[in-house]
Amino acid sequence: MLIFSQRLKWLREKRGLTQAEMAEKLNMSQPGYSKIESGRSEPNLETLVKLPKILGEDLNFIVGLDDYTFEAKQASDELHNVNQKLHSILGNIDFVINNYDEDHKELFDARKDILEQQLLELKIDQSKLQKKLDNYLSNIPQKKDQ
């Protein structure tokens, strides 16, 4: 349950809540909450059910069954979408190059320029999203920390 305790504390602090405020939201004493957060006691089912609403995260993440917060999942999904678009543009570039026609050089050059610009923009987006995801993941208490 170490990952649970680590994430519980991390999420509480991330939301700017004190142990006393968490205890109040969970209808328990501050010492009782402190025992749960420190791993000296386990929460009952009623307490577990309240945590996602209070902390704004999925229970699977809080208890360590999932390693991505909602923010990290969103960044990962955005990165996946950008990677799919990059793959599509690379396919379009390949198509344009393989169907080069000297008689339509101006059209070829214009199309190539547009695709190269789109590729550049997506690579910038990809880099930003990867950094964002890496930042989220570097701050999340992971199971390997146990």
From TrEMBL:
Alphabetical keyword list: Coiled coil, DNA-binding
Span of the signal peptide: none
HTH cro/C1-type domain sequence ranges: 8-62
Record-linked InterPro entries: Cro/C1-type_HTH, Lambda_DNA-bd_dom_sf
Ranges in coiled-coil conformation: 112-139
Gene3D superfamilies: lambda repressor-like DNA-binding domains
Protein name, UniProt field: Helix-turn-helix transcriptional regulator
Higher taxonomy: Bacteria, Bacillati, Bacillota, Bacilli, Bacillales
